C-alpha cells in the first residue's frame, strides 16, 4: 500500500460523471495540500447536479443534458481524464470524446468489468489507459484502491493515477488480471462488513435489546474494533487471541463461527463476485 507525495502536482483533470465515487475523488482533489494544474472540469447529466459545483473553487461544471458538447469540452486540455459513468456507458463515452482527448493524456476508468483492451481499441495509442477499483470509504478519505495500467500506460502514467487515488486513501498497484479480485475483496468489501453489522444487530435484538440498544452495541463494537486494529498495527489474528481466553465465553462463540465454514464461505463469495466481473467483461 502507498500514500501520496504532497509535493507532487497533478495534471489538469477532467471528471466525466460525479456520482458518489466521483464526488469522493473530487473532494479528495480539493483537500488542503493537493495541487492540481488548473481548474478541474466535471460533467454531470443534469443542470441541477452541475449547479452543486457552481460555487466550488477550482471547479468548472458542465451539464450534458443542456450542452451536448459538455464531455468533449471538459477533456480538451486535460492530462488526466476520469471516467465515472456506469460500466455499460464507458464505451459510448469513449467514442464520444476520443477525438478530443489530448495526445499523451491518461484515461482512468473506475468501472467494473470493462477491460483495458476494449477501451484501448476505441481511443487508440494516443493516450494511456488505466483501470482503478476504489471503494466507498473513499468518501471519508479512508478508501482502498487497486490501480492497473495497460500496455499503453507506462510507469509514469500509473504513478500519476496512484497519486490521484492517494488523495482519498491507500493505493495498491496491481496487474489488470488482479483487478476483478480487488473488486471482490476491497471494492465490495464494505458491503460484507455492513451485512455483518446488520446480522449482529438483528441477533442482539433477538436477545432482547431494543433496536437502539442493539445498533449501539453492534455498530460501536465494529467501529471500535476497526480503530483498534488500525492503531495497534497488530495482526488481526493476534488481536482476536487477546480477546479469546482459553475455555472462556468468547472461545465458545468463535468456535461456533469457525465451525460454520468461514474459509469456504469467503472463497465462494469472492468467486461469485469475480465470476460476475468476468461476465461483465464478456458483455
From TrEMBL:
Main location, first listed in the record: cytoplasm
Residue ranges occupied by any Pyrroline-5-carboxylate reductase dimerisation domain in the UniProt entry: 176-280
Keyword Oxidoreductase in annotation: yes
Occurrences of domain Pyrroline-5-carboxylate reductase catalytic N-terminal (ranges): 12-113
Catalytic activity from the UniProt record: L-proline + NAD(+) = (S)-1-pyrroline-5-carboxylate + NADH + 2 H(+); L-proline + NADP(+) = (S)-1-pyrroline-5-carboxylate + NADPH + 2 H(+)
GO-annotated molecular function: pyrroline-5-carboxylate reductase activity
GO CC term, one of those recorded: cytoplasm
One Pfam assignment: F420_oxidored
InterPro entries: P5C_Rdtase_cat_N (IPR028939), P5CR-like_CS (IPR053790), P5CR_dimer (IPR029036), Pyrroline-COOH_reductase (IPR000304)
Keyword vocabulary terms for this entry: Amino-acid biosynthesis, Cytoplasm, NADP, Oxidoreductase, Proline biosynthesis
Family of the protein in this entry: Belongs to the pyrroline-5-carboxylate reductase family.
HAMAP family given in the database record: P5C_reductase
UniProt function note: Catalyzes the reduction of 1-pyrroline-5-carboxylate (PCA) to L-proline.
PANTHER family: PYRROLINE-5-CARBOXYLATE REDUCTASE, PYRROLINE-5-CARBOXYLATE REDUCTASE 3
Identification of the protein by name: Pyrroline-5-carboxylate reductase
Species of origin: Leucobacter soli
Recorded name of the encoding gene: proC
